Structure prediction request, 369 residues.
Amino acid sequence: MNILFPLHWVTGLGLWAPLHWRNYEPKDDDQEQCRMPPHMTFFCELEAAQLEVLFESGQVIATLQKLDAGVALAIRDFSTERAAVVRRLNEAGIPVTAWLLLPEEEGYWFNLDNAPLAVQRYQDFQAWSQNEHLKWLRIGLDIEPDFRLITALKEGVMPALRFIFSTASHRKKRFASARLLYRQLVEQIHNDGYEVEAYQLPLILEERRSRSFVLQRWLGVLDLEVDREVLMLYSSFSRPWGDALLLSYGKDAQNIAIGSTGGGVDLEGVADTRPLDWQEFSRDLLIAGLLKPEVAIFSLEGCVQQGYLEKLIQFDWQQSVQVERRKYVLVQQVRRLLAAALWILERPWLPAALLILMVLLQIRRKKSN
Prediction:
């Protein structure tokens, strides 16, 4: 039997704690009890030509102003068209985060394999930004595996495993130097007057908790110290467990990104690419709003295409929301098992030593008998 429970529980060390508001119409003298909507930032990953079309009417900018929302704009190129859109957002008073990306052939996302390219990308971005007189709220670094892994996954599990193991063997040699380059990059960005935020896969929490470097060596991701960390908790890619994953990881995250409402990298054949419908999107918004005062949303273009952006103006943040207890508990258990597995994989000598000890004790017992 599936048991639904309202989100007035969030686990600390396996204990339930209050975190829910009642669904009611606030009175004039009761405004302080109303749940304030979180500040929203919309990711936008369009190419230059599509970006121009999205913003050409001015309606999207007007809606963003009504929502008091920001934009994290993917810097896929250094074109005059992209610069023109940024200036329009600057003039409208909309905060813009520069979401740095590489060309696909260079890995697209930032990782341990392309550290020198990431450093050069920021330098090129800074020159372009100064030449175009662009203003940025902060700089975003997207920390994900090499884009070529996505291509390998589309071909099958074995090609993906071959890619992982072939790159992991080279990564061991440059692990320390790559991490140092990224730390220096963050320092350089700070010196240029910007805050730095990193977009991370949720599994980085298990890596961190187990004091492991396994995922970083295998996938090329890195645990980077920045001013703001945003976990990419896209429930559209993890149906039917998405809401439970969002609740589980969201309570432990510094900041949350939800989605996907459409757009972005083509993951056909790798993950569920169906965008969130309005019911799913509303559910994720409510969960994220309960957990954090700020919510990032992927993506702006998806919200516009599906008509979600306008709906957010009148969105009722006082609604209740429910998650299946069974699903949430199972996600928590899987996370603990994953952390334990990473801990052991980082210290493979320990189980081997225990096995040898057990064999020696067994031999000694037989001799005694």
Remarks:
- The chain has one domain: 36-368.
- The radius of gyration is 23 Å.
- Residues 36-368 form a domain with the TIM Barrel fold (CATH 3.20.20).
